[in-house]
Write a structure and sequence with these properties.
- Helix content is 17%, strand content 35%.
- It is α+β, with helices and mostly antiparallel strands.
- It has one domain.
Amino acid sequence: MKKVFLLVVIMYFGILSCTEDDDKYMDNGTITGIDFRECFCCGGYFIDINDSTYRFDSLPIGSNISLDNAVFPIPVKLDWQMEDTLCIGDEINVLKITKR
């Protein structure tokens, strides 16, 4: 009986440790549309995060969002960081993203 109980406990904790943290993201945001401006540093998409507007060029591979023929706004949750090489100063890299 002790072996069965021990096996059940091990299986329980094994299952808990295998769950992914897909629900944990840095921020909520809203992709609001395309940047149609025609300048050297323009283009991409606008996204509102924490009362600030940023721009990004592309989404990470494997995201569940298609920006081709998208209907904006798109509420999302995401992990992101500021772009290393800033042009205008509002560029970000989207690390992980999913629809809310």
